[in-house]
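Raw record, unedited: Flippase-like domain-containing protein
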Amino acid sequence: MSDVEVSVVLPAYNEEATIERTVEVTLETLASFLPAGAFEVIVAEDGCDDRTPEIATRLAEEDDRVRHIHSDRRLGRGGALEYAFERAGGETLVYFDTDLATDMKHLEELVETVRSGEYDVATGSRWMPENQAERPAKRAVSSRGYNTLVRLFLRSDMQDHQCGFKAISRETFDALRSEVEDEHWFWDTEVLVLSQRRGYRVKEFPVDWEPKGDTKVDLVRDVFGMGSQILRTWWQLSVSPRISRRVSMAAGSILVMLALIVAVSVVFNLETVFDAMSGADPALVTAAGVVYLVSWPLRGLRYRDILDRLGFSGDTWFLTGAIFISQTGNLVFPARLGDGVRAYVVKARRDVPYPSGFASLAIERVFDLLAITVLGGTVLVGLVLTGGTEQIAEAIAAEIPPVTIGGETIDAGAAARTALRVAAGVGAAAVLGVLAILASARMESDYVHRVVTAVSNDSYANYVSGVIEQFVGDVQAVVSDRGAFARVGLGSLVIWVVDVATALVVFAAFPDIALTPALVATAFFAVSVGNLAKVLPLSPGGIGLYEGAFTLIVFGLTNVAAPVAFAISIVDHVVKNAVTILGGLVSMGWLNVSLTTAVEESREASEVEAAAVTED
């Protein structure tokens, strides 16, 4: 076989009905343009449980141009290809799908493009204008979407990354194989992306293609899997090379410090409220920060109770530090990505599985929303009972003067009313969410499994449904347990009372403001609605939504002027964010955790965990 120039690999998994015909057609086509002895056809049999191994062995015995490479266990499509390429004899490595969906008239162009030395990689394409490809609508939509994501995130110039009709030179394959991590359907996409990134010559040409039989792509396994692989490859190629542990720690620290500086600079650029703020007592503003700091070990204690109910142990101070880090991440990263950092920290340091880690976060959020809703609702009921309905309506309709920031005018009234609507929706959703969780606890335990497996019969579907069921079960374990519900619920109320107490100290820091019972009640309502409003990640840290709702309520329900109410809301929010950021920096140093590194390592750890479960 030393004269072999071209090795064609046929990845085969349970192909007893088609493999013999595929080998015959392949041999005939190769013989039509290559010299005798210059090619081989390898059946890369991937742990089949049908008659494919027997057929492949017989074909190899009958024709010395055919080889059978067997694997005792399932390697996956990419793993089988790589395993066979490593053992192939040719300098030009080719593969295509055994269903012969791509018209074999294109095989000569595929082979000669690389064999000639003109290109390092060649791939057929079903999405170029010149080709003819019949794709069912369901396949077409998913394929278009997938290729668009690859081009967008991975900066690929290819139109079709998954056409099973490719060739690569031995030199290029040897150079790239250690970098390619996927072992299944994403393997060839990763090869194409890396080839372009490393400067290899890649040719994409149109092919005629017709689907044969049902696709082996599984909706749950492969959509979830390939989506995560796109993100994994993006991180490795675009982000990871630019950071090290030392760099990421420094970057994380700089980011949070910048967030603090920006927050403070915004305060002092608000010319319309500067006069009100300049009169605030610095000592009382500092005292407000100390009061707010008290709430953090209470958060750690509550989180310990939640994890304990889920069967995991953790000391209060460690968990307090983990919460500091995650909340700092939520101020730095968009869409509450800091929550993932906390899930990683408790996974890495306390062996809490990711489903339980995220479930514990969900439980915490549910009780936070309930506590805030109870506090705000109690004040609202009190106002209604004392004849304050008209006053509430006036507050909602109140005209708050526009605020000028950096030369631009902001309609604070409109923003405030938007925040009120968001708060009302979030509060209602919190109550309905708890009711739904309690109701689901009485449903059949396998309803999630039945829903997921209805769209997939792959083993990975069992893994996905298992993760969801564990998540739902963990939430139910706390919410449906009366003792745990009472402890966590009471702890949540105390935490948010301290949050309101912080705002009251800020109120006291401003001159000419007396802490009357009416103002205290208003502060409870303002802080509650403000925090409900900022639950949705519409702005970093809820900046703007919190201040808008807070200002509208204080201005509408008290005699505090709008600029002063706005100034109080800003100082209150800055004090709380400053404590959060400083606590996060201290905790990152104490626990030796970097925000950016934690994001990267959480991704790697979850991939290893998923792979282990899938292999089982």
